[in-house]
Design brief:
Layout (H helix, E strand, L loop, with lengths): L1 H10 L4 E5 L2 E4 H22 L8 H46 L16 H23 L15 H36 L3 H33 L4
Antiparallel strand pairs: 1-2
Helix pairs in contact: 1-5, 2-3, 3-6, 4-5, 4-6, 5-6
């Protein structure tokens, strides 16, 4: 238990800083969020600064991800839906994917952690998705979009509201819990069995980070599907 506590305090340190009385910001999370955004921007810039008809290298990898995500969106949202939400969904996936993997970087000269291991970031992302779904829904369908709250009949309104409120909660907790647990376990393994097991766990965590980004993105696409079901 002592090893686990020591590892978690070392791996998961948010550097809380009081900006003004009563307002505390986790600066480590802020720094890692900025770093994630910078990496995503750098990847996109490197892949698009000299676009080739026959892609190779990073352009090929990025196009592969984009084509895969476009396929998922088109099968769930239709062609028009994909065109509307593709920039949002692709950016969301890249941010979460890169952010999930940051905590696996070697702790050399700088403390790296995943911004998604902070419940505030996970909730921020899930709330942003929920708000975006409603905004896009109203833009696409107008006020009649809110009819889903009284479907299949008006008496379902309270349950439908509870369901709408629970969606961002479950999305956030799933992302936060998996990434946080992975980084804590990595710290524990580094203390108990350096080198071999941590390296194996890093390989497994790379897959987990990708899967969590995929699940969050897929849930976003599923949440957007009713917006375009009339046109699809």
């Amino acid at each position: 238990m002592g090893i686990a506590e020591a590892a978690s305090s070392e791996i998961i340190h948010y550097a809380p800083t009081q900006i003004i009385p009563g307002v505390v910001i986790n600066m480590q999370t802020v720094y890692m969020s900025w770093l994630t955004m910078a990496i995503v921007a750098a990847i996109v810039f490197a892949a698009t600064r000299n676009v080739q008809k026959i892609p190779s290298g990073i352009q090929n990898i990025l196009e592969m991800f984009i084509e895969w995500l476009n396929g998922l969106m088109e099968s769930n949202l239709g062609v028009e839906g994909r065109r509307v939400v593709a920039p949002f969904v692709i950016t969301l996936f890249l941010y979460i994917f890169i952010g999930n993997e940051l905590g696996l970087l070697p702790q050399v000269g700088m403390h790296f952690s995943s911004p998604t291991n902070d419940i505030n970031v996970a909730f921020g992302l899930s709330i942003m998705v929920s708000v975006a779904v409603y905004i896009i829904g109203v833009l696409q369908q107008g006020p009649k979009y809110f009819r889903h709250l009284i479907s299949p009949f008006t008496a379902m309104l309270p349950l439908n509201i509870i369901e709408e409120l629970s969606k961002p909660l479950t999305m956030a907790l799933r992302l936060f819990g998996n990434i946080l647990a992975g980084e804590i376990l990595l710290g524990v393994l580094n203390e108990l069995v350096p080198y071999l097991l941590p390296n194996l766990w890093i390989g497994f965590s790379l897959i987990v980070g990708f899967l969590q980004a995929f699940i969050f993105t897929m849930l976003t696409v599923i949440a957007l599907a009713p917006v375009f079901k009339v046109k699809h």
